[in-house]
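Researcher: Before we compare anything, I want clean individual predictions. No alignment, no superposition, just each chain on its own. First chain goes here; please echo the sequence and then give the structure tokens.
Model: Echoing the first chain and its structure:
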Amino acid sequence: MGLPLLSSALWNPSHSCCSSSVELIWPHLSSKSCCLGLKFKCQQFYKGRSTMLGVLVCSSRRPTSKETVWRRKILPQNEDLPPILPKNKKKPYPIPFKEIQQAAREDKKLAQMGIEKPLEPPKNGLLVPDLVPVAYEVFEAWKLLIKGLAQLLHHIPVHGCSECSEVHVAQTGHNFRDCSGPSGRERRSSHAWVKGSVNDILVPIESYHLFDPFGRRIKHDTRFEYDRIPAIVELCIQAGVDIPEYPSRRRTNPIRMLGKRVIDRGGNLEEPKPWRLADPSSLNDFDTYRAFERFSRPSLSDLPKIAQETMAAYEIVKKGVRKLMRKYTVKACGYCTEVHVGPWGHNAKLCGEFKHQWRDGKHGWQDATVDEVFPPNYVWHVRDPNGPPLASALRRYYGKAPAVVEVCMQAGAQIPYEYKPMMRLDVIIPDPEEARMIA
């Protein structure tokens, strides 16, 4: 779009202000795509009097409805990791608290008027047919992810600190003195490295399995009557995956709610427990417990292929969990790492974090995020796994990546583009003496 054409007959440069009306002309303008704006009056002061001379009209062109503006999403060159939340404060709400209060007021107003709360699947206990294939895809990718990591760890060394949650993927552990373990002061905050496992790569986030998520809540005295399984598996079960060992109630009639009270849940059914007679080995496919021992050591030629398949499974699980959590409710404690899949949290008094005495050990339930159900578990990115350990003086030049991505990359998989900014691949790591000269 070119500059406006200014009529020379209407403009006199010798005057200090406008001597007559000024016309701005845009080429190829239609009446529908023009908007008038910036109307202002030009005045001339002469002998103490102001003389009205004209109105300046500016017009701009807007794209029509048929035109499409394509914007490419540009990722930053280097990206910092999300800040670590302090443990002496409650986690921020993923949904603004004002919106939560507004929704509660509307539900209370409908309950006072005797109007049932309008519910849509899956809030009314029914399945979402479009998400059932997504749940099966996530479940199969989760099993493939566990199998791939167990095979890769036979060749890729992983170290974990025995005192804290630090994990490092390299031949030797790093030399950073940031251990927060109970005996870290005796070791001057240096880590106590031991051989890692699959649980160090995939942080085990477990949840209670419920036959009926809209049934009775789990109490503190009845918590041992329910099994603990990975939260991702429980989310897939409630989204439509059928596992004989862990049955789930499939409703045909929706539940009815008046405010926060369920007025019709279709009766209470006794939970069947066929898992007590099942083979325990059939349950190990979707559990990370002792996964390293269940899978044999692969050959070096198959390592890049396994790494690429594991990376693809990781992306499927992450994207699938995000899709499922947009519809299905998952609760997380605002103080600890406890997660519960269902419309309401359980009543087990197991929270031992900040000011748990004030809450009698009860969890502070709020809506969960994807990172709480499927933690990325960031580790330091190592460019040369066989080189010297990472130096503490060059810490600000190193990047980080999810532990699964780091293991697969060292095994020969291609790095997804979205993880490159946080790995800082474009930063040249100087020598320790050169780093002292850098301001």
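Researcher: Okay. Second chain, same rules.
Model: Second chain and its structure:
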Amino acid sequence: MGSQDSEAQRRLERVKELENELANDRSVKLAGVDVDGILRGKLVSKNKFSSIAKDGFGFCSVIFGWDMHDQTYFRELKISNKENGYKDLLAVVDLDSFRRIPWEGDVPFFLVSFYDPDTKQPVSACPRGLLKQQLEKLSQSTTYGAKAGVEYEFYQFKLPSASASSSSTDGPPSAAAFLRENPPNALPSLTDGMFGYSLTRPVHNQAYYYDIFNTCQEFDCPIEGWHTESGPGVFEAALENTDVKRMADRACLFKYTVKSVATKYGITPCFMAKPKQGLPGNSGHVHVSLTDADGKNILYQPREENPQYPDIAHLSETGRWFLAGILEGLPDVMPLLAPTINSYKRLVENFWAPVTVSWGLEHRAASIRLIAPPTCSEKATRFEVRVAGADANPYYVLSAILALGWRGIRNKARFPCPPLGKGEDVGGASDKGIRLARNLREATERFMAPDSIARQVFGDDFVDHYGGTREHEIRLFDEAVTDWEFKRYIENV
């Protein structure tokens, strides 16, 4: 029996198992992920789910034809447009993604992936499909597997009262409604002041703090570490390490969980990369390691006596190629790690944020922090990619890391720059790495260039589509009139 037949048989068996598991349910919630990492889905009847669980169902392609505010792209793109009538895509349920939503009466929940209904191939821009392709490259060419952990920082704001945020007293208070009539700085922070790793600040919102932690556990996106971070109303969550595919799902569902739970407490979580001028931004650091068929970490090696750099004494040859590949391709994939106009407000000098192609053993200001013995155990040897913000799509970030790292292994890549030493500043005289893009326009132009490494590892269809979505974002910002402009020029010009 071929692999496709085996997969079909396994799927049939799982569908039958689910008939029993969902016997007492009346409905099922389904959701896919768009290019901005936002869940798009619907509630369906149990009968409907039973009819589509095996072969999938039609889902409007417009979720790849409009932006996060449902505005169609200025330049229509290949996947969804007027010419193809914003046709349906084939949405295939990932039966292994089953969990129940604890804050919605334990309604069953499944993630879906999107396929072309004619070719049955993954839609180029489908985040889950893109990551699956990178994992298949890794597993088909080698016996390697990949594990990851994600850390999210995010600000939290108190929702104003319903009377202050809306002309109507019906329904819960809305931050969006409040901000239509008030400046952003009028939205109060959950707590004031700077107090990272505080044991007392969470007590101020104790029920909310523990509800997030416990609900994430129930929804299968468990938190490993949970604490306050430096900044007014800022928390940080380190999600429990697992295989890359499951980690991407958990990272996406973590945001969904936080936003859903926060609503009950009148709180608005904010995963923007830089919500407040002059304060630290929100990072989305990603930890990645490679394993062999037995699950053993293959980035580690016993200490080498005379390595090229002291930093890599405990890093295997495969690990060196993987790291060099990420460093080489990093400038060409920046829109995946820093996807918005606001992303680049975080990536500035003097804020513990990486601004160059840089790396180093236990260097927390570099783009990539190598974590290896003697500061960790052999099995914990890994790379922390520190460029991505909390606003990035986790599927795209992990896809970029794997694609570039695998390219590095394949090409036996060499380091494009030496490591940064302790005390050496990122962007300083000793930093030999090139400056990363300063804004989304610069990043997108490099991403879409004919000779971009992004095109080599992802193909033209994905680069052209995703690049087109970023060009849309840039145009919207070009046409926007900001508060800064209005205040600066209203009287004096």
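Researcher: What stands out in the second chain?
Model: The radius of gyration is 23 Å. Additionally, Confidence is low (pLDDT under 50) at residues 162-169.
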